[in-house]
Design goal:
Distance between the termini: 12 Å
Strand content: under 5%
Number of domains: 1
Radius of gyration: 17 Å
Structural class: mainly alpha
Helix content: over 70%
Number of strands: 0
Largest sheet: none
Number of helices: 6
Order of helices and strands: HHHHHH
């Protein structure tokens, strides 16, 4: 370690680790698109009242929209790894992740009206994901400004 290196506080490691766990969870959601049927996916994501409609929605998600979500999840995961490695490239990866997530949300909620087939708790989870993405950008930017990321 160089004398000019900033030693991160314990909170940096705790938050970075939590962001990694969140990113792994998000990546597993996109893995489910290739492992589970739309009905199985809806079974884990939705209430019994709207599972069938949500399964139909999932079955008709275009490939480009799945790719957008996967890019968001992959850059989120790489951003989390970047934080743990204390690399400045974590920040632009988190920005890309949020941008792609916003595109995915726009497609889902505006173009495909997913709110009509998605439960309120599921919508809340999407909003929490967006909030965590924005937090990750802020945290990476703050860490970079404090010279924790190099």
């Amino acid at each position: 370690m160089k004398a000019t290196d900033t030693v991160p506080p314990v909170s940096f490691w705790v938050i970075s680790g939590a962001l990694l766990l969140w990113a792994l969870g998000g990546a597993s959601i996109y893995a489910a698109y290739f492992i589970e049927t739309p009905q199985e996916f809806a079974q884990t994501a939705e209430t019994s009242a709207n599972r069938e409609a949500y399964a139909d929605y999932v079955a008709n998600i275009p490939s480009w929209a799945i790719a957008v979500g996967m890019i968001s999840a992959a850059t989120r995961l790489l951003g989390a790894i970047g934080l743990l490695l204390r690399r400045a490239w974590a920040l632009p990866l988190y920005v890309v992740s949020v941008v792609f997530f916003l595109v995915a949300l726009y497609r889902a909620f505006v173009l495909a009206n997913v709110a009509g087939v998605m439960s309120a708790p599921h919508i809340a989870v999407e909003l929490v994901f967006l909030a965590l993405g924005i937090f990750a950008v802020w945290f990476a930017r703050k860490s970079k400004s404090k010279s924790i990321l190099r």
